[in-house]
Amino acid sequence: MSKIAVIDYGVGNTGSILKKLRRIGQNSILASSRNDIENVSKIILPGVGHFTSSVRNLKRSGLWDELNESVVHKKLPILGICLGMQLMSKKSEEGNEDGFGWIEANVVRFKVEDKIRYKIPHIGWNTIEVKKKSPIFEGVDLAKGFYFVHSFHLECHNQEDVLATTDYSYPFVSVVQKDHIFGVQFHPEKSHDWGEIFLLNFLKL
User: Fold this and answer.
1) Which one of the listed residues 122, 150, 153, 187 is annotated catalytic?
2) What is the count of structural domains for the chain?
3) Active site residue 156
């Protein structure tokens, strides 16, 4: 059976992801050092926290270089969730550290005009609008929506990388793909059956 590494860098909700993976019968490990990524078939990079602190934690643990090696050179499929997706970008308005740069994008804070109707952070269920077909959406009822918790979002430089957007005061990027690199702004591990199907689709890739 293939083994999935869930990256642990001191932030995020790794417990929820591991629980969901166990529920669907997937062999997974919590990876907190570079040696933990050896002999895995796929990687999940979760995250709930601060961009700059997360970059520094990853570098301090040695996971930063190992993730670059695994994703850029070994071409291991990876799924970034929430902050995990944002770390795949070039840089963020949340601090002064550079991201991995795997996706040609910057991370920006929500800029909403109606602050009574649109609270920041964006918390709760919302739907996605698919821009490009992908097997990662197979069997997912997109009308049901996914669970979001975030104050920042991606601005992609290359629209070819955008799989889906979500509307919250204005459309923002909620799903990206560049070859074997996938990112979602929502939390599939908290999105009930549809999030579970989404994760299964990634694991089947």
Assistant:
1) 187
2) 1
3) no
Assign 74 to helix, strand or coil: coil
Is residue 125 within a helix (H) or strand (E), and if so which, with residue range?
strand 122-126
Domain span holding position 84: 3-204
CA-nearest of 34, 28, 35 to 6 is: 28
**Residues contacting residue 175 through CB under 8 Å, at least 6 positions apart:** 128, 130, 136, 162, 163, 164, 182, 183, 184, 185
Residue with tokens 């840089």: 91
Place of tokens 């077909």: 133
Q: Are 174 and 164 in contact (CB under 8 A)?
A: yes
Tens digits of per-residue pLDDT, 129-160? Answer: 999 999 999 999 988 999 999 999 999 999 99
Catalytic pick among 66, 82, 150, 156:
82
41: three-class secondary structure by DSSP: coil
Q: 57: which residues sit within 8 A by CB, 6+ positions away?
A: 9, 10, 11
Q: Which tens digits make up the pLDDT trace of 152-180?
A: 999 999 999 999 999 999 999 999 999 99
Is 187 an annotated catalytic residue?
A: yes
| Cβ proximity of 146 and 120 under 8 Å | no
Looking up residue 133, the CATH number of its domain turns out to be 3.40.50.880
